[in-house]
Amino acid sequence: MLADQPAARRGKYASGIAPGEIISLLKSVGTPAADGLVSYLKNHESALEGVSAYWTRRRDVSDTLLSLMRTEEEAKADYATLSDQVVQSYGVQLDGYHKSPKVLVNSVDAVVFRECKRSGATANTNPQSRAAIISDNHIWVSPRRLDGAIPDLLNPVALWEIKEYWGKTGGGSKMSDAIYELHLVGLELRMFENDFGVHVNHYAILDGRHQWESRRADLRKAVDLLYSGLLDELVVGREVLTEWPRIVADCCSLLKV
Question: The pTM is what?
Fold first, then answer.
């Protein structure tokens, strides 16, 4: 999903978040930061209209993203249309715990292999070290290992991070950690870009309907990352079949410029 995609058209505040509701919601939080924001907005009432419009869009977009997410069974069925390989799993879980599949990782990789083969480009879909960008006499090194790069970890044109959570229990703090990781990498990339003029596309790929549904606040924070420019695009659920091929093809074309 692109940040400039319009939300569903509504009448003014119809099913949306009115300015007065924003103040009430912030007051109910009861933290110093929320209280400070209440004080600011009361002294800058003109800002309330913009905040109201964004909060409404943010909620609309996150609801749309959730509708695109899949169950584990649906994701596996979609993967079967991309590859005849067996879906891998994450590590060994203790008895009684859900053994989480790498179905989104495997789907992302299958699309990357296909699109890169078509264009003759290369990609690293199993990074064993951190990415690095060199500009003149400056070097940026990613704060953590990522999930993929085109064409490789040195001076990539694109980097991506995959956040898939399966099972029918509610999500947890791991979802907040995932948003923090996306925020950290995106912020560092944009700071390097602002200082030294090198842009690297940064993508997040999310799936797992049951767990993300229980962490809507974290999903809305992912929307914030998109609209703040820390992500170039947010790919969710079924979009791995519809939008991810376009994105990979576009990134491969950048290597020919």
Answer: 0.90
